[in-house]
Design a protein that fits this description.
alpha/beta; two-stranded antiparallel sheet; 19 helices; 11 strands
C-alpha cells in the first residue's frame, strides 16, 4: 500500500484505522479472503458530495419523489448498474434482490454483472467518472477501500431507513457489523455477510471412525496419529490457500494468549511472531508436517482440488476455513457429509479468551460511488438486500448468515454447517475477535510463499517465524507506507 495522495486522505486513513478494535460481537472480514487482496491505488478526484434524496444526483440522473416506499428517491423505471464479485457466494443472491426491486414502488431494473477482477474492471470506470451504482468490492482483486473512500456515498442513510418489512435497518443487524465499513465517521461500506472462521469436519465420518473432535492441541496431535492409523490425513491444503493455516495458527494463538498476541501482530511489532503462544502453535503444526499428518503436494495443488480431497474423497479429516466453504464446495461434497465447524484448538486447559472464543467478521463490502449515474438506485438495491426476505434467501441458498438477525431457523435450513455456526456464535458470546493486519497491508502474496514452503516441509517453524517477521518488518520499516494502530 502506497501513501495516500493527499493530506486529507492521510488524515482520513489515520482516523479510520484508529477506530479498528476487537469487536465484542462481530467485526470486519475475513482475515483470509481479506488478506488475499493487496491494496490497489486508484486515481481519485476531489471529495464528492453525497446524494440528496431528491433533485439531481451527482451522476446527473434526475431523482424521483422521496416516499416511504422510495426513501432515496429512485427515478421511476430507472436502471441500477450493479457489479458483484463472483466468488464462493456467486451473484444469485443479488439477482434475487433485483427481482424484488423490480416490483417496488420505483419499478427499477437492476443489471447485475458478475466480476472476478473488481480492480481491473472498475479502475478505469472510477478514473473516467462512470463507476457502477452498486459494487460488491470483494475478492482477491478488490479495490483498496482507503483509495476510494472519498468517492463513495455515506451509507448511514441506508441503515437509518426502514427495511421492506417496516423496521429500521440498523435495529435488525448484529452488533458491531457496521464498524468495519466506517471510515473516519463515514459509513462507506456495508459488509453484508457474517463469516465464521472454524475448523471444519464431517460429523458423519467422525462417527463412522469413532473419532472425537479435538479441543486442545494434545488432542489434535493424537487425532493425527489415529487418522494416520486409519489411512487418513489430518489436514490438506492448496497452493492459493496455504495462508488459511496462518489464520488457523493466529486464531489459536490469540485464543490462548489473548489480545497481547493479536495486537503485537496487528501493529507489526518487532519479534511479534516469536510470541510463545504463536511458537507453541507453529511447533505443533511442524509436528503435524514431520509426522505426515498433512496430505503431501499441496503447494502444487489448486485449492479447490485440495478442498475436494477433504469434502468429497475424505482423504483428510479437517480443514480450516471461513464459513463460505460449504457453498464453495457444494458440488464437490460427499452425500451425507454433515459438514460441521468447531473452534480452533487451544494449548492449555484455560486459554485467556476462553475455550469457545472464535474469529468472526462481517464480510463482502458493498459500496455506492457518488459519481455513479444512479446512486439512489444503488442504495435502494442495497436496502432491498437488507430486507428479511432477501437476507433469509441468502442464508437458505448460500448456507451462511448475513448481518441481518433472525433469518436462520433452528434447523439451519437443513445445513449442519449453518447450525454449527449459530452454536459457535452463541457459545462465544462476547469472546469474538478479528484479525486485520494482512488486509490492511496486503501481505498475503508474500506470506503464501513461506506458508507453502513450511507445509511442504522445506522450512521448519524457526524458518517460518523468521520469514513472517521479515514480511512484517518490511512494512513496518517502509516510511512510504502509512502505518495505523489497530486496537
Amino acid at each position: 500500500m502506497g501513501p495516500l495522495a493527499s493530506t486529507t486522505r492521510l488524515h482520513l486513513l489515520e482516523a479510520t484505522l484508529n477506530r479498528i478494535h476487537t469487536q465484542s460481537a462481530l467485526g470486519r472480514r475475513n482475515f483470509l479472503r481479506g488478506t488475499l487482496a493487496a491494496a490497489v491505488l486508484i486515481p481519485t478526484a476531489s471529495v464528492l458530495a453525497g446524494c440528496a434524496g431528491g433533485g439531481t444526483t451527482p451522476g446527473g440522473t434526475a431523482s424521483g419523489a422521496v416516499t416511504a416506499g422510495n426513501p432515496f428517491g429512485v427515478a421511476s423505471g430507472s436502471t441500477v448498474d450493479a457489479v458483484i464479485f463472483k466468488g464462493g457466494y456467486d451473484v444469485k443472491y443479488v439477482e434475487f434482490a433485483a427481482e424484488i426491486l423490480a416490483k417496488g414502488e420505483a419499478k427499477a431494473t437492476a443489471k447485475v454483472s458478475p466480476s472476478t477482477d473488481i480492480t481491473g474492471e472498475l479502475q478505469p470506470r472510477f478514473a473516467g467518472g462512470t463507476p457502477p451504482d452498486l459494487i460488491d468490492n470483494s475478492g482477491a482483486k478488490k479495490i483498496g477501500m482507503t483509495t476510494i473512500v472519498d468517492q463513495l456515498e455515506d451509507l448511514q442513510g441506508v441503515v437509518d431507513a426502514k427495511n421492506l418489512e417496516g423496521k429500521v435497518i440498523k435495529d435488525t443487524l448484529y452488533p458491531g457489523v457496521l464498524t468495519p465499513g466506517t471510515y473516519g465517521g463515514k459509513l462507506a461500506s456495508i459488509n453484508y455477510v457474517l463469516t465464521v472462521f472454524a475448523v471444519w469436519y464431517s460429523a458423519s465420518l467422525f462417527k463412522e471412525l469413532g473419532l472425537t473432535p479435538p479441543k486442545t492441541w494434545d488432542e489434535m496431535l493424537k487425532l493425527g496419529e489415529d487418522a494416520k492409523a486409519q489411512g487418513k490425513y489430518l489436514f490438506t491444503w492448496g497452493t492459493e490457500a496455504a495462508t488459511y493455516y496462518q489464520e488457523f495458527a493466529l486464531a489459536s494463538a490469540i485464543k490462548e494468549g489473548g489480545d497481547d498476541v493479536r495486537l503485537a501482530i496487528e501493529n507489526l511489532k518487532p519479534d511479534a511472531w516469536s510470541h510463545p503462544a504463536i511458537q507453541d502453535v507453529f511447533t505443533a503444526l511442524e509436528t503435524c508436517v514431520k509426522n505426515g499428518y498433512f496430505k503431501p503436494g499441496g503447494s502444487g495443488t489448486k485449492f479447490t482440488a485440495a478442498q475436494a480431497s477433504w469434502s468429497n474423497a475424505q482423504e483428510a479429516l479437517l480443514y480450516p476455513s471461513g464459513s463460505w466453504i460449504e457453498n464453495e464446495m457444494k458440488d464437490q461434497t460427499k452425500a451425507g457429509f454433515e459438514m460441521t465447524g468447531m473452534p480452533v484448538p487451544h494449548k492449555s486447559s484455560s486459554p485467556k479468551l476462553g475455550a469457545d472464543a472464535i474469529h468472526s467478521a462481517s464480510d463482502e463490502p458493498f459500496v455506492v460511488p457518488s459519481a455513479a449515474k444512479n446512486p439512489a438506485g444503488g442504495k435502494e438495491l442495497l436496502r432491498t438486500m437488507l430486507s428479511q426476505e432477501a437476507a433469509a434467501n441468502f442464508a437458505k441458498t448460500i448456507l451462511a448468515p448475513t448481518i441481518v438477525k433472525g433469518t436462520v431457523p433452528a434447523d439451519g435450513f437443513g445445513s449442519t454447517a449453518l447450525v454449527s455456526q449459530t452454536k459457535m456464535l452463541d457459545a462465544a458470546a462476547d469472546n469474538v475477535f478479528d484479525i486485520r493486519f494482512g488486509n490492511v497491508y496486503g501481505l498475503n502474496k508474500d506470506q503464501l510463499v513461506t506458508w507453502n514452503s513450511f507445509l511442504d516441509g522445506k522450512i521448519d517453524a524457526a524458518g517460518l517465524t523468521a520469514d513472517l517477521q521479515k514480511i512484517s518488518d518490511k512494512v513496518a520499516n517502509d516510511k512510504s507506507i502509512t502505518k495505523i494502530e489497530i486496537k
